[in-house]
Structures are given as C-alpha cells and as structure tokens.
Amino acid sequence: MSKVSRGWDDEEVLAALQQALRAQRAVPPEFIEAGKNAFAWHNIDAELAQLTYDSTLDSSLELSLRAEAASIRALTFTSAHLTIELEVGQDSLLGQIIPAQPATIRIQPREDAERVLATDEIGCFSVQPIPSGQFRIHCHTAAGVSALTGWITL
Amino acid sequence: MRDDPSVIALVARVGDGDQEAWNELVERYAPLVWSICVRYGLSRQDIDDVGQSVWLLLVEQIGKLREPAALPGWLATTTRRECLRILRAGRRYDHEGLPPDDQMPPDPSATMIEQEIIVAERNAALRTAFAELPQPCRELLAMLMSDPSPAYAEISARLGMAVGSIGPTRARCLERMRRSPHLVAVLGDQAGGDIEVKEPRGEQGE
User: Fold this and answer.
1) Of A18, A26, A41, the CB nearest to B59
2) How far apart are the C-alpha atoms of A131 and A125, rounded to whole Å?
C-alpha cells in the first residue's frame, strides 16, 4: 500500500473494491457451502467418535485364517467415553456399544429422516435395511453419555 | 487495525447458536482460508480437507475465543498449521508423487500470513461497505467495475440515468464507501478524508 498518508481517491476506492470482489469470486461456492454446513456440529452435546478401525483398510486381515469373515465389513468408532462397533451383515447392520450398556441409537442419513432404535441390555442393536447413502450414528446411553460418528458410507 | 466491531457482534451471535451469523462469518473469512491454502500450493482436494478441519475447529472453539477481534489471526494460524500438517503427511506417505525438494512450494513466512490477514480484513470491509450501499449505487459501481467498462451512454441507457449525472453519482457513491464505518474501522485513516498519518504503517518501519 503506497497511499498511507492521505485518503484514497475515487480510483483507489474503486480499484480496491474490484480486488475485494475478485478475491471473493476466486473461492468456489462449494468451499463456502461446506464451511456453513460445519455449523451442524455446534451445540451437539455428543463427543465426536472417530473411525479407528475399518476392515477394508486392514491388509493383515487378508492373511488371517478367517477367510470367510473377509466378506463382512467391520468398523470401529471411538470417542473419549464410548466405542461403537459395527459389522455389516448380509441384510442388516449389527452394532454394539462398549462398555456394554443400554442406549438409544439414532441413524441419521444425510438425505433422509432419522431412524431411532433402542439397544438391548448389553448395548447390541441391529439396523435393517442397511442404510444406503451417507449416514452417521448418534448414540445416547442410559447413563447420559453421547457420541456421534463422522459420516459413514457402507 | 483489525477490530471491526461487526466481527465482535458476529462472534457473539454465533456463540448463541445463530446459523445466519455463522454463515456470514464463513462468507467473510472463506477467502482468507482459501488464499492461504493457495499460497501453500495445495491441491483442490487438500484445500477442501483443510477447510473442513478449520471450520470444525472453529465451531468447537469459537466460544473459547478470548478476543473475538483476534478471530482473523486465529483462522490464519489454524489454516497455516493444517496446511503444513497435510504437506507433512504427504511427504511421509507419498514420496513418489511429490516434486523434488527444491521444487516444493516454499513455506510462506509468517510475514506473508500477516499480510494475508490485512488484505482479507480490508477486502471483507470493502465488501460489507459495498453491500450496504443503496441499490442504485451498487448497480452503478458494478457496471463501472465490469470489464470492459461500458461507455457512459450505455450505462445511461441501462440504468435510466442521465449521462451528466453519472460522474457526480459515482463520486457520491464512492464517498459513501469511504465513510462507511466498516471501512473506517479496518483502514482507519487510510480510506477517509485527507488526514495526515504520523507514521505510515508497513513500508517505512522495516
């Protein structure tokens, strides 16, 4: 900036404004949209449960003796206080909360209404049919602990 | 000069769970996050990843920001850290696809980041000031800024304004811009009036 000791003249204001609008146009709208969507995480009482295991990314599994299990996909999500284990079966998605305890499970598809279900006494649940698009799982235990997974695509 | 009061108000509204305020904040600062990523030479996908991390971290921490006015600095620092994290992860795991060391994009210095913050704040203030102009002013200035800039006769026809009043209207609209509180807050003496500034910032001190 060369003109610091006196005010901008008309040409300078116009040029600066032009540059400001150009800088805004350089940003793709999807980038801004994704930023706005991040606010969905605001005020969520749940801890984020991060993907800590995915069988499709586990190369050691192919070498294991349980060859028949290779067709079953297993995922683990871990937050500070809860672990959610998932197994994709033939026609249902099986899950368990660890430590084992009763909880309310919300399956939240990105493009669809959420489904609410209860686990059994030891935290097991089954989702049928298997969610087709992107979804996440919100888990609220009877003891009052909540966790929310990132987006999952099976 | 980075204490635009409108930012402080926005941060407070976001803290109260106001999605509209959050949207405004993202629109205001997306160009800053974006431009820093571009400086680091990241691919489009890496930029999206950095953006995702930066906004999620902000959602999580905005309530703990001690000084809302320090938000641009926080965003720039966080973006820079996320860019470096991605570049480092790439170096470790993907040696094959990487250019040789001497062709790696240089690590833009802290000075550059500081410069990006100043430019981003100035640009945001200019856009806000522009958005608050009366509609006829915005239409006229938008036409004057289009490339190639149209002849006055064409502007006159399109906006239904006498050719003779285009010049004076332009001057009046730009004067309104200059006097906008948003611009004054960020630019201080630079934009408004013929005020002598004792110490020009930047160039002379270095």
Assistant:
1) A41
2) 14
Residues A97, A151: Cα–Cα separation, whole Å: 18
Q: Which residues of A touch B27 (CB under 8 A)?
A: 32
B191 vs A4: CB contact, 8 Å cut-off?
no
Residue B51 has pLDDT above 70, yes or no: yes
pLDDT for A44: 66
Q: Which residue has the tokens 């906004």?
A: B55
Tens digits of per-residue pLDDT, A30-58? 999 989 988 877 766 677 777 788 877 66
- % chain A with pLDDT above 70: 84
**The predicted structure's pLDDT at residue A64:** 52
Indicate whether B156 pLDDT > 80.
yes
A interface with B, Cβ–Cβ < 8 A, is: 1-8, 10, 13-14, 16-21, 23-24, 26-27, 31-32, 34-36, 38-39, 41-43
Identify the residue among B36, B49, B138, B174 best suited for mutation to test binding to A, counting A beta carbons within 10 A and taking the highest: B174
3-state secondary structure of A21: helix
**Distance from C-alpha of B3 to C-alpha of B13, rounded to nearest angstrom:** 17
Whole-model pTM: value is 0.64
pLDDT mean across residues, chain A: 83
Tell me whether the omega of the peptide bond preceding residue A99 falls within 30 degrees of 0, making it cis: yes
Asked if A105 and A76 touch (Cβ cutoff 8 Å), the reply is: no
Provide the 3-class DSSP secondary structure of residue A31. helix
Instruction: Tell me the C-alpha distance between B165 and B187, whole Å.
Output: 29
